[in-house]
Amino acid sequence: MSASTHVAARPGLPARAGQSAPPLAAADYWYFFAGFLRRPWKVGAVAPSSARLARTIVRHCHLQKADIVVELGAGTGAITRHILESIGPHTTFITLELDARHVARLRERHPGLKIYRESAENLRALLARHGRKTVDCVISGLPWGNMSRRAQQRILREILAVLKPGGRFCGFGYVHAGWYPSSRAFHRTLQQHFRRVGISPVVWRNLPPAFVYSCT
Ligand SMILES: C[S@@+](CC[C@H](N)C(=O)[O-])C[C@H]1O[C@@H](n2cnc3c(N)ncnc32)[C@H](O)[C@@H]1O
């Protein structure tokens, strides 16, 4: 496990506030697709999230005043860069990604932003190493629909254990996967554990089309 935090500075991003994050490079798509070929079930998508989807997620997260934010399953950073733009100057931002090459790509794109190569299943232990127990917001890029019920439960347990009262859990699901038994089970579990589970309209400009969920 390698340590990582991001406080205040925005490594690898434009300095000017309000400036848009640069678009993904063709290489990001290649890295991502290669990751999918290596481990299709773990990566769970053929392309990184679109800027439209990433912006929709971040908009639901209200990150400006967050003290600490965690991203799970960052991939090549399609959402990461929008999170970096949205957090406040004193927000601690921690990113987890399992795939070694995705981690390498993330570090290349955001030098100075340290990333954990770690499973979301170890979220609590990872935060403890950081001297932290709770977070304001967990943003997920994880492929829940491809996971076993047990894996879903293990990760959700971690998320629920670290969310502050009033904390928020956001992520996205693919429209076509909405009918998978695993996706339906995941949605039912969210409704059991959160007071409110909001679902956005479909973001069509994404491959494949997706929706955002936001749970409090
Ligand atoms: C659907 S991709 C999304 C990537 C990126 N967030 C995006 O939106 O383009 C899912 C990512 O989750 C990672 N992943 C899968 N299981 C994981 C786990 N248990 N812990 C951390 N990352 C995981 C995969 O390696 C992959 O990069």
Protein architecture, described:
There is one protein chain. Strands 3-2-1-4-5-7-6 form a 7-stranded mixed sheet, sandwiched between helices. It is globular and about 40 Å long. Helix 3 crosses helix 4. The protein contains 8 helices and 7 strands, in the order H-H-H-E-H-E-H-E-H-E-H-E-H-E-E. Helices cover 37% and strands 19% of the residues. The protein has one domain: Vaccinia Virus protein VP39 (Rossmann fold), CATH 3.40.50. The model is unreliable at 1-19 (pLDDT under 50). The longest helix is centred in the C-terminal third of the chain and has 14 residues, at 149-162. S-adenosylmethionine (SAM) binds at residues 42-45, 48-49, 72-75, 78-79, 96-99, 102, 119-121, 141-143. Residues 42-45, 48-49, 72-75, 78-79, 96-99, 102, 119-121, 141-143 line the site of S-adenosylmethionine.
Overall CATH architecture? 3-Layer(aba) Sandwich
Question: In this structure, how is the largest beta sheet organized?
Answer: 7 strands, mixed
CATH topology heading: Rossmann fold
Number of H- or I-type helical stretches = 8
Overall number of strands: 7
Look at the structure and name the CATH superfamily.
Vaccinia Virus protein VP39
Q: Write out the strand line-up for the largest beta sheet, numbering strands in chain order.
A: 3-2-1-4-5-7-6
Kindly state the percentage of residues in helix.
25-40%
The set of bound ligands, ions and cofactors reads: S-adenosylmethionine
Alpha carbon gap, first and last residue: 29 Å
Q: Could you list the spans in which at least 5 consecutive residues all have pLDDT below 50? A: 1-19
Report the radius of gyration as a whole number of Å: 16 Å
Structural class: alpha/beta
The dominant shape is: globular
- The total number of structural domains is 1
If you average the pLDDT, what whole number results?
Answer: 87
**What is the CATH top level name?**
Alpha Beta
Strand share of the residues? 15-25%
The H/E string reads HHHEHEHEHEHEHEE
